[in-house]
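Q: Two folds, back to back.
A: First:
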Amino acid sequence: MKQLIVQPDFLKLGIATTVHYHVYNGILFYNLSLMFLRLLSLCLIFLLLLAINICCGDVTLAPDQILATLTGGQGSDSAISNIIWQLRLPRLLIAAIVGACLSLAGFVMQTISRNSLADPYLTGVSSGAGLAVALAFITRVDLAVVPLFAFAGGLAVSVIVARLAQTNNGLSVNRLLLGGIGVAAITGGAMTLLLTMNPVFSQTQGIFFWLAGGISGRGWPEFWPAFFCTIIGITAVLILSKPLRLLSLGPNAAQSLGLNVPVMQWSLLISAVLLCAAAVSVSGLVGFVGLIGPHITRKLFRNGERLQIICATMIGACLVLLSDLVARTLYQGQELPLGTLLSVCGGPFFLWLVYQHKEQES
């Protein structure tokens, strides 16, 4: 009699377990399929933006002309070859590098501070690197050494801001942002004073235009140093992806899991500074990419820290490629400063994020 009562319960339990198992597998398959489609769409958008950027400009090029020039086949023209190889190809690669570096640097800073408002531009790292690069331009150092100046300036500012934000429980977000704004104001004033005291007017005017943010006139000599810094920075962040995920849980939780929190925080911060230096050395002060890119990444890809790192670089590259395309094609014969254009678009986005934080706190 007892077996007749117990057996149906076990049968129901087995059926329920099987149903839950299949439902879980179905949800997991759906999430993986959705993530794959998003990643595929992101790759296609990136390739499409590369193609559009190399086609469009003051001189519109047909796809067959570009293909013939890139492959060295018949129908290639010396003038078109010069436009593609010396102007557009290095420019679009630099735009992709700038976006990838700033977006990944912002992703790292936001993860360390556990706040979506952290950004290389807002925390003063870009301004410190910009001051060092302006000093390098005035002293006329070799272009290959400019990223080292940018790294030193960005690292110096990040050390100052991190010391100001350091507490017993890790980095304080409020202190990080306020310290970054204060240090950025100081370095910005120092840049202006340094340039106004420079006797060479043409050089000063060029640096002022560079500080407004842009990649006009950049070529292969500027690309290669930034490219190597980018590869080193992205590789370092990928290697430290597991500590980065643990730090996203909070310093106390990460320490309880056996992580050396101060060492990992500084290692990731140095990687972010290197990425920021690579971007600033070729593009000047370009803001809000490190704010928008990581936010979009976390909305589209919620799991997998290495996947988020790769997608953050691609989303940032797409943002700058699109912005640079608009900057040089919106007005015929006139190019808008890339940094100014991104500030106009990124400023409202930053205010929206502040409003979102206000609603969450209330």
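A: Second:
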Amino acid sequence: MVKKKNKVKTEKIVKENPNSAVEKQFFWLVGIIIAVILGFVLIPILYHQIFEKFEYGGVKFEKIKEGQLTFYHGQFPVIYKGTFYAIYNVYLRHDPRKNEIPLNTNLSLSNKISISLNDGATSCEDAMLGQIELGKFFSAFPFVNKNITTGFYNASLAKEFNISPITCDNASKDHTVIVIQRSETPSIEMGEKDNCFVLNVGNCKYLETVERYVIGAMAQINGKSLN
């Protein structure tokens, strides 16, 4: 007769360190605090990188705030005769991605530029800002230099200031004419002659139309589309 051996189970008693639970809670608390701090630091940075920096028309833009004003800062390399000349900094008041003013022509620049004001364009509140933006943009190109003039399209108005009217007839291969005028709707069109461009500012969307012209010119130089 075979005797069965009784199996004896031994239980191992583990004594827990009373301080271990407290230590775990402490490390969890420290981890949460660090995560919260990193969140406060990283979330604004990531938001800025994802939503406030973008590329449009071959130009890199950054949305910035100066007091109550919002600008869209873009940097554009000016290259003249194959040589890097300077970085042009543009500060737009309107988001270029949302500026949908029709641009219905290819743009070009010559060493002489004339800006001709027509049909009440000077009465727009933002006309001065638009003029400054155009002047800054044209002056960025070394071949233009100081060959920028401003006049009037209307002959009678030009006569009052004892200057000659500027129309598309003045445009040539070496002379770019920009006609700015009020219209039913804003748009940028080719004028009656090559190298003449008409900026229809609609009901005083003067600055917005000028900014569309500027970003359109930069995009064209970069070989990019605005669509």
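Q: And?
A: Residues 18-51 form the longest helix (34 residues).
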